[in-house]
Amino acid sequence: MKIIKQNNELSSSPSSFSFRSVLSWRFFIRFALFSLFWGLLTRWQQNSLGLGIVFIAMASVLSLYLAPQQKKRHQWLKKPFSILSFLYYFYVQSLRGGWSIAKLALSPKLKLSPGFIKYHTDLANDSQVFTFMQVLSLLPGTVSARQNAQELTIHVLDMNTFNQAEIDDCQIRIKQLLGTSVQPLIDGEN
Description:
Layout (H helix, E strand, L loop, with lengths): L1 H10 L7 H4 L2 H18 L6 H18 L13 H27 L8 E6 L5 H11 L5 E7 L2 E6 L7 H15 L12
Antiparallel strand pairs: 1-3, 2-3
Helix pairs in contact: 3-4, 6-7
């Protein structure tokens, strides 16, 4: 009896794939996004359309097969304001980081005092820490260099103008965006 039950559980596992999922709205959304991406890559050339449709369909089916099927809907989809707020923050920080580096490149006489700081984060899981490290690299004058459990080593371009409040604000925004119920991208138990 246990063997049959285990086999039934295996057949309904998240990686199970059926022809029915190809005809789902998830497939058509993927197909549309991959088509847009293909069009941008090929600069909308008509002669690449035949081959493109084949690869777009293959990529869409493969992404359905590889994507884990989650029983719960994504929590972040229920918070559109937090997504828009984070996108605005991301855009502003990207511009500030680019402007800061451009200023340094155009005025090489500035005296910089580079260094490393240790920053302890209290983010809940690996996916939050990973996202935090990536966004942190956009802040003006900072690059996340290393992670050791909950402690990050951050390279700071100028220790004289370093502002830890910006890093704290970034961490808070990541928490608001991803919440605490997000599962890690990499499961450490396997």
